[in-house]
Task: structure prediction
Amino acid sequence: MLELRPNCECCDKDLPNGAADALICTFECTFCAACAATHLGGRCPNCGGDLVKRPTRPDGPLGRFPASTKRVSKAHPGCTAKS
Result:
């Protein structure tokens, strides 16, 4: 089950469940579309994999399986998040 991380790992922008600009890699690293395009070239800086649109969890399952509240931020070249 996806964690649905709450923020962009690069700029720390809030990315709640359903955020249209939330992108993930196969390891669930989460970035906003702006950082992916501007700083990351559409690739995850952690694993090198593709960044794709993160699915939305419907309200029913979201109640039983809530999104993560643990924020992840790492210092990647060009990013403004603090490590």
